[in-house]
Amino acid sequence: MGNLKHLEAGGSAITRKADGNPEGKGLNGFLLDWYQSEPKGVVAKPQRQVLAELFTSMLVLSAKFKYRPTVGAAYYLYWINGEWSLSLIAPAEWSDERRAGFAGACVLQRDMTWTIAPSDLLAESNAVSDAIGRFYDAFAETLRTDLTLEEILPFYVRRLPYYQRLYASALSRSMRTALILGDQASTSCRRWYTRLPRQKEALLFYGG
């Protein structure tokens, strides 16, 4: 999977091989979505950055949304009625109830990872910080295995809605490439677990 075809000299990045259709013209439906979700500019990364980007990206992709995200655009993550929601509406434009669940502003990067500028609410004890804590606990638990990180990446999760499934696959392709470039592909998840910060929200601040 992935159609990542060319490793640049020195092993610092992976790019697509130039072809006769650089903008995906003529494609439609799933093929266009797949093309537009192709990771670009993937590079080797420090272990803490890998963990931060995986945690943040999985948090965003666990949210409800029914549109194709655009690289570089701002989105807003909320904890509302017991579930995560990714919205186009900024907290200042919404009700007090919605603002109380604001977790942070999210941006999809070219390499198909997500970064978050965390909300000030995460510095307090409240429903949204508690939800982040529970997600962190579940994330940490997935690392308690002798499998490698690549083996637990969500390349295809049937239960996810279409766009979440599409971008989870894109994230997995990006992460796999970064692991290979960083010579980290054989590192066990238990080793990654030891790199987790003690503060549960710290990964968001590192990745943002």
Tell me the helix content: 25-40%
Mean pLDDT: 85
> How many helices in DSSP terms?
8
Quaternary organisation: single chain
How is this structure best described in words?
Strands 4-3-5-6 form a four-stranded antiparallel sheet. A hairpin with a 2-residue loop joins strand 3 and strand 4. The chain is of the alpha+beta class and 208 residues long. The N terminus is likely disordered.
Describe the secondary-structure layout.
Blueprint (H helix, E strand, L loop, with lengths): L5 E2 L6 E2 L13 H8 L10 H15 L12 E7 L2 E5 L8 H4 L2 E7 L5 E5 L8 H16 L6 H4 L9 H20 L7 H5 L8 H6 L1
Antiparallel strand pairs: 1-2, 3-4, 3-5, 5-6
Question: In a nutshell, what does this entry contain?
Answer:
This protein has 208 residues and is α+β, with helices and mostly antiparallel strands. The chain is built from eight helices and six strands. It has a four-stranded antiparallel β-sheet. Strands 1-2 form a two-stranded antiparallel ribbon.
